[in-house]
Write a structure and sequence with these properties.
This protein is mainly alpha-helical. It contains 11 helices and 4 strands; from the N terminus they run ββααααββααααααα. A hairpin with a 2-residue loop joins β1 and β2. α2 packs across α8. The longest helix is centred in the N-terminal third of the chain and has 32 residues. The chain is globular. The mean pLDDT is about 85.
Length: about 300
């Protein structure tokens, strides 16, 4: 058997793959948080609950309407994004010009309400969501077995993250969004509907959480606590990458997933805390984060 650093190659590479899968969800969720915070200065603690909502909506579409996985990848982000529009217009918009701590407290309360509604409706045991037949099975690579669906998740997450980065950083739409958050009066003078742009930004951020929820449904049991299990780690990813940094969220999300996977091989007891150790070290050395802007 091939050994790498004294560890069987299938075990090591399997943990790296598992780390990439976790990293894909870290990247997508932290990306949505970074978009919302970077553009709107709102710390959206309800992001994990909206991720969970995406998984539940995918399950409901399948079991109540017979709508499968691939249509759900399109429909669920639209549905969760519409919920984001409702939240932004009704309760979040008044918080833009005050201390971000109020936004955090409000969205924390929203998260508890959403989780409570699903827990009362579906219980806490969890609901299965089958992998689509076209993505079942896997490929034998010689040194390890690669499940097809796991590979699809990593690829889909990478494509969505890259497309989001390009949209925000390299397009006219992204430039308008950034300008609207920096100087709304000036952008409004050019005929841009700034409130609509802000709503679109928030909806886009939570739609990313909904998309991640669909991808997560076949891997993790669909249950009201699945967002809660991710959100603390995702906030650590955002802090390490730099608050509001799109590129930082993507790179850090995937990297920390791999680091966590490798830690599971060499020091399993530290796998759950390694991300927070990295966060502490980064904040000591570089308080603004790896990709954060200098104030």
């Amino acid at each position: 058997m091939v050994m790498i650093f004294g560890v069987p190659a299938p075990l090591l590479l399997g943990q790296i793959l598992l780390g990439l899968i976790n990293g894909a969800f870290y990247a997508m969720l932290s990306l949505g948080l970074a978009v919302i915070f970077g553009m709107l200065n709102i710390i959206n603690f309800a992001h994990g609950a909206l991720f969970m909502t995406g998984a539940f909506v995918a399950w409901m579409l399948l079991h109540y309407a017979g709508i499968g996985f691939y249509p759900a990848l399109v429909l669920v982000p639209l549905i969760v994004g519409a919920l984001g529009v409702l939240l932004e217009r009704t309760i979040i918009a008044p918080l833009y010009k005050i201390d971000p701590i109020y936004g955090l407290l409000l969205t924390f309360g929203v998260a508890l309400v959403i989780e409570g509604l699903f827990r009362n409706g579906y219980g806490s045991a969890g609901l299965p969501y089958e992998i689509p037949a076209s993505l079942s099975g896997g490929a034998q690579l010689g040194f390890m077995f690669l499940p097809t669906y796991r590979g699809f998740v990593v690829l889909a997450a990478a494509i969505v993250c890259f497309a989001t980065w390009v949209t925000i950083e390299k397009t006219r739409l992204g430039a308008t969004l950034r300008a609207a958050t920096e100087n709304a009066l000036l952008v409004r003078a050019f005929g841009v509907n700034v409130p609509r742009m802000i709503t679109f930004t928030f909806a886009g951020g939570v739609a990313l959480a909904g998309f991640a929820g669909v991808l997560a449904a076949p891997i993790y049991t669909v249950n009201p606590d699945m967002g809660e299990n991710f959100i603390i780690v995702v906030f650590a990813v955002v802090v390490i990458g730099g608050m509001g940094s799109i590129l930082g969220s993507i790179v850090t999300g995937f990297a920390l997933g791999v680091i966590q996977g490798l830690t599971s091989v060499f020091y399993p007891e530290g796998a759950n805390m390694v991300i927070f150790l990295v966060m502490a070290f980064v904040l000591l050395v570089l308080p603004r984060g790896l990709f954060g802007k200098v104030a």
